[in-house]
Amino acid sequence: MDVVTISTKSKTYPMYIGSGIIDQLPQLIKDTCKTVSNILVISDETVAQRYLEQVMVLLKTDFKNSYSFVIPAGEAAKSFEMYYQCQTFALSRGLDRSSLILALGGGVVGDLAGFVAATFMRGIPFIQLPTTLLAHDSAVGGKVAINHDLGKNMIGAFHQPNAVLYEIDFMKTLPLKELRSGFAEVIKHGLIGDREFYHWLIREVKTLSDLNKEKLQYAVLKGVSVKAKVVSEDEQEKGLRAILNFGHTLGHAIEAELGYGEITHGDAIAIGMIYALRLSEEIFNFDLSSSSIAASFKRFGFPVTVPQELPPEKLLQRMKMDKKATSGKVKMILLKDIGKAVIKDVDDKQLLLLLEKSYEKA
Ligand SMILES: NC(=O)c1ccc[n+]([C@@H]2O[C@H](COP(=O)([O-])OP(=O)(O)OC[C@H]3O[C@@H](n4cnc5c(N)ncnc54)[C@H](O)[C@@H]3O)[C@@H](O)[C@H]2O)c1
Ligand SMILES: O=C(O)C(=O)C[C@@H](O)[C@H](O)[C@H](O)COP(=O)(O)O
Ligand SMILES: [Zn+2]
Asked: 288 — phi, psi (to 5°)?
């Protein structure tokens, strides 16, 4: 088992990563939460079908007042409607300020349940139980949110979990498409903050099926380590933390413009990362091998060009509403080298020109 300590201004908490560790959940709750009056497990229907009973059985002995609420699977559930339903369930079951929420699922469950926890009676503790590869990213760092039609994660908070318990065995049932989505964030962590790890990925993971249990655990550990370092320096994205948004300015615009759930988060940011790499080459007059990186993305099955049906002007409009933008001025995360990300204001004209070229086959 690997243990990563996440230290932020507001909270320091442990993340346990390993195979066959879910049984440690009751002890982890006792170790990281004070008095727990009752527990609400929030999960989605696909994850619940596979793992909810196992979790509820684990809670039965020590936490008699444990309830579960199951949301539909998929991005569309990060909505006002589901948020309201979770809050209503919590209130109707008598949750109080000593209650605990467990988020059992991927990034959708984690973001939604975390936002419910952040706002229920002005904030109660929660623990992340990630079940997707992508959630190595979403379960750490305390960004919790729901979507708005006008933009991804627009309504949210910073609310750190009390702990993260990452049961690697849960990923056995993850569909390939979802593994790929999570792998995009793994690659992102290498590209922005750990050159050696990025090269390890390229060397050791030729196809997604190379991600056996050991490599998966190593990739999660290295990815999380990059994120933990950034978040410990800048919990609330006053500056540095924005580098974790590499690929997201365009990626989020694509997700929102296509309609939430039409493309996975990872596929969308893969397109966004290739775009940001090309922009970096243009702006810094540097060769970052964006073409060979795009070719390797394609081998994993990632899309690398913008979907034809999305007009560039609409995407630019969405990018101007990105949370990093100030007065409509777009801030992009660019690379000066592999492993070295920077934050830069970029003119609309340059963004649009490159967008127009991003529909071509890469
Ligand atoms: N808060 C953050 O810092 C942060 C970071 C990255 C991404 N995100 C957010 O995370 C979300 C994406 O997360 P995701 O990719 O985990 O999506 P997800 O939670 O929708 O999970 C993807 C799909 O896989 C299914 N699934 C989950 N675990 C499974 C398992 N073990 N076996 C079989 N099926 C399983 C789910 O039911 C769902 O259909 C996006 O909303 C994104 O914005 C947040
Ligand atoms: O933790 C962060 O900070 C990130 O930017 C991680 C991203 O991978 C993640 O998708 C996050 O939800 C994006 O945040 P947002 O502030 O751009 O909505
Ligand atoms: Zn992301």
From this structure: -100, 15
Specify which residues 343 forms β-bridges with: 333
User: For residue 186, what are the contacts with CB-CB under 8 A and spacing of at least 6?
Assistant: 133, 136, 201, 219, 220, 222, 223
Distance, in Å, from the CA atom of 53 to the CA atom of 322, rounded to the nearest integer, reads 39
Q: What is the Cα–Cα distance from 111 to 116, expressed in whole angstroms?
A: 9
Decide: pTM greater than 0.95. Answer: yes
Residue 5: burial class (beta carbons within 10 Å; 0-12, 13-18, 19+)? exposed
**Ligand 1 center from residue 137 Cα (angstroms):** 10
Q: Rounded to the nearest whole angstrom, what is the distance from the C-alpha of residue 16 to the centroid of ligand 2?
A: 21
- Is there an atom of ligand 2 within 6 Å of 245 CB? yes
Query: Measured from the CB, is residue 331 less than 6 Å from ligand 2?
Result: no
Is residue 254 within 8 A of residue 263, CB to CB? The reply is yes
Cβ neighbors of 50 (< 8 A, separation 6 or more) are: 170, 173
Pocket test for ligand 1, best of 108, 160, 241 (most atoms within 8 A of CB): 108
Coil/strand/helix, residue 174: coil
| Cα 331 to Cα 333: distance, rounded to the nearest angstrom | 7
Residue 245 CA to ligand 2 centre (angstroms): 6
Indicate which residues carry an active-site annotation. Answer: 122, 143, 185, 227, 237, 241, 245, 248, 252, 265
194-357 falls under which CATH superfamily? Dehydroquinate synthase-like - alpha domain (1.20.1090.10)
> What residue segments make up the domains of the chain, in order of their start?
2-173, 194-357
Candidate CATH numbers 3.40.50.1220, 3.30.420.310, 1.10.10.10, 3.40.50.1970; the one for domain 2-173: 3.40.50.1970
246-304 tens-digit pLDDT: 999 999 999 999 999 999 999 999 999 999 999 999 999 989 999 999 999 999 999 99
Stated as kind and residue range, the H or E segment containing 129 is strand 126-130
Single out the residue of 93, 44, 97 nearest to residue 67, CA to CA.
Answer: 93
Which residue's C-alpha comes closest to atom 3 of ligand 2? 244
pLDDT of residue 360: 73
